[in-house]
Amino acid sequence: MPELLSAPLVVEFPFTRSLGPVQSAFLTGLRERTVLGVRTSDGKVLVPPVEYDPATAEEIRDLVEVGATGTVTTWAWNPGPRRGQPLPTPFAWVLVKLDGADTALLHVLDAPGPDDVRSGLRVRIRWAEERTGAITDIACFEPDDTEPDDTEPAAHVTGHSGVFDDAVTGIVTPARLDYTYSPGRAQSGYINALAGRKTVGERCPSCRKVYVPPRGACPTCGVATSEQVEVGPRGTVTTYCIVNIKAAHTANLGIEVPYVYAHIALDGADLALHGRIGGIPYDQVRMGLRVEPVWTSSSRHPDHYRPTGEPDADYDQYKELL
Amino acid sequence: MRYARDVAIVAFAQTDTLRRTDELSEVEMVMPVLHDVLRQTGLRTSDIGFTCSGSSDYLAGRAFSFTMALDGVGAWPPIPESHVEMDGAWALYEAWVKILTGEADTALVYAYGKSSPGEVRDVLTRQLDPYYVAPLWPDSVALAALQAQALIDAGAADEPALAAVADRSRTDASDNPHAQLKGSVPSGDYIVRPLRTGDCPPIGDGAAAVILASGDRARELCERPAWIRGMDHRIEAHSLGVRDLTDSPSTRLAAEHAGAFERPVDTAELHAPFSSQEVVLRRTLKLNDSVRVNPSGGALAANPVMAAGLIRLGEAAARIHRGESDRALAHATSGPCLQQNLVAVLEGES
Predict the structure, then answer these.
(1) Chain A contact set for B237 (CB, 8 A)
(2) Is A220 part of the contact surface with chain B (CB cutoff 8 Å)?
(3) Is B242 left (phi over 0), alpha (psi -120 to 50) or beta?
(4) Which chain B positions have a beta carbon within 8 Å of A220's beta carbon?
(5) Cβ-contact A215, A208 below 8 angstroms
(6) What angle do CA B325, B326, B331 make, to 5 degrees?
(7) Cβ contact (<8 Å) for A95 and B240?
(8) Of B61, B139, B193, which is closest to A11 when you measure between CB atoms?
């Protein structure tokens, strides 16, 4: 078994999302320290509010303001906060029914320890100092030691237009996930071979075709491939395109447009891989052109392919690989 | 409920569930189970009428990994194929519908999950409401713990009862060669209170595959087919705060539509990754002590995300194939706190 490869892989994206009218009012309200809910046609107040009744799917727009205090309906003590969670110290996850609301909001509670938390606990919102119109404008909940309020829940609900100056209409939600990427046996073999400036494929034991880069399976026969076969280094351009727009990606900044991106059938391979063609004016690249890889000193794969000077390959020799 | 055609699970295979499988790409992990179900039935890939899979690229952080896994089923020349970004149980549902409509007589269903490259607790937060919930990064254990506390507050369970569920599951898993956690396992420390290590599923990688066939084709391929007498799936509101976490009305409705309450079942394979979720499901499905629950050990013994639900269907079917069950209920779940639920009723002919 050759050396297994692994490398850190970060998947990170700032999702930009637009808000509907109810979500916009709710999140703008949080920026203004005002919690809004929405009333359904049967009089229930949903907090956080949604635009469609979860029971009837009816569109709902009747906004109301509810209290900034409420009651814990269930909780879970988190001794080990994870990245991205609202508090860096141990805290309780809570579902809180705010005064006047009929449904519960998920957030966190800052409390000294699990013995200080129970279902039924009275809590109040601790607002974040800097608020942008996001659920994190609620920094957390904290125990509310003021006198218990025994008024009817409806007494906490007041009508609200949902209109604020400078309404928030969108949010950006950053997301980051960390992985350790392992390419598996077949692709590790391919990458390891590249380190020695060799290209290897794998031969299907059934149809005898050589796949490159190998993924460990023959897509025609659905069986595992295992026999490693060195292919190339020379090959034939089977088809190509001319790229006229510079890609923003940093890896491509040094490449002048127009350039040619091609499918290249390496000698001995039954599948074309792709690469850039250099060393020839872009408008002279053609199907059948014979090419070879060009390695640069620091690269881990061929930087590009250039003409070998051989006569072009006959169409019949590569037509199956188009 | 009478369906247009009789459809059965005729073969099932699963990998061992392992904490890490760095040496395997996803297609390398899937191929052995594909070959296993084909061997059991004598079918070749070219004989399969429809192929459907379940997986999620977020688990391994590999874009379009499900299209690459298709190399393992021989997708050239072109085949009719589909994929669900869910547990493979829902892929099985799609394949079942495909056969019911008469568009196929056989179907290959597979599912796989590699949780080891990432942090599955964090990864699963990305399936939550992106406006109000996901920015708080509530991990999968935290959400299950909220449900567990709600159960405890309602008097439906306590911590020793939860520990007993976990202990029974892993003791049963001693007989399951594919399980990841077997035998008596200590409850351990709280991960998110009230859930301890023992109440949570092991994190692991694995794959499973089944073959479905209709009518006489099923009888040709399998000595005792596991006939799907009914199957249904239902979903509840996205927001946790509008749901009663101690109950699972979607499971109950799916079970009613699948015919689960028409006659008693002898076996139930429940997809309950957390001990507290088994308590909710038993209550919802009215399973008494006469029903053998999760003889395989269930998801507390092996929980390859995206395959664990399909494995429940496969384990239930395999018991029927072996003559150990005549009428079994299989359940699969997806989403936080049992948000989406699928129930199937399987029977063997005497």
Answers:
(1) 54
(2) yes
(3) alpha
(4) 74, 76-77
(5) no
(6) 70
(7) yes
(8) B61
Q: What is the pTM of this model?
A: 0.94
**Alpha carbon distances (Å) from B47 to A83, B77, B133, B349:** 49, 12, 46, 26
Question: For residue B230, what are the CA distances in angstroms to B94, B208, B222, B226, B255?
Answer: 13, 22, 20, 12, 9
Residue (of B67, B40, B53) closest to B95 by Cα position: B53
ipTM: 0.95
Size of interface A-B (CB pairs under 8 A): 187
What residues are paired with A143 via a beta bridge?
A123
- A82 CB neighbours in chain B (<8 A) are 121-122, 137, 139
- Edge-first strand listing for the sheet containing B7-14: B81-84, B50-54, B106-113, B206-214, B7-14, B226-235, B340-347, B327-334, B267-269, B292-293
Q: Which residues in chain B are closer than 8 Å to A108, comparing Cβ atoms?
A: 136
Residues 49-88 of A with CB under 8 A from B: 50, 54, 73-80, 82-86
Q: What is the pLDDT of residues A248-292, one digit of tens each?
A: 776 667 788 899 999 999 999 999 999 999 999 999 999 999 999
* Rounded-to-integer distance, Cα B95 and Cα B89, Å: 10
In contact, A240 and A277? CB cutoff 8 Å: yes
Q: Which of A189, A177, A115, A104 is nearest to A141 (CA)?
A: A104
Collect all residues with Cβ–Cβ distance below 8 Å to A233 and sequence separation of at least 6.
Answer: A198, A199, A266, A267, A292, A293
Contact at 8 Å (CB) between B306 and B55? Answer: yes
Question: What count of other Cβ atoms lies within 10 Å of the Cβ of residue B242?
Answer: 18
Neighboring chain B residues of A19 at a CB cutoff of 8 Å = 131
Query: Tokens 């009218």 belong to which residue?
Result: A21
- Give the amino acid at A99: D
- In this complex, is the C-beta atom of A178 within 8 Å of any C-beta atom belonging to chain B? yes
Residues 5-34 of A with CB under 8 A from B: 6, 9, 11, 15, 17, 19, 23, 27
Per-block average pLDDT, block size 10, for chain B (350 residues)?
90 97 92 97 94 95 86 90 96 98 97 96 95 96 98 97 97 97 93 98 98 97 98 94 96 98 98 98 95 97 98 98 98 97 95
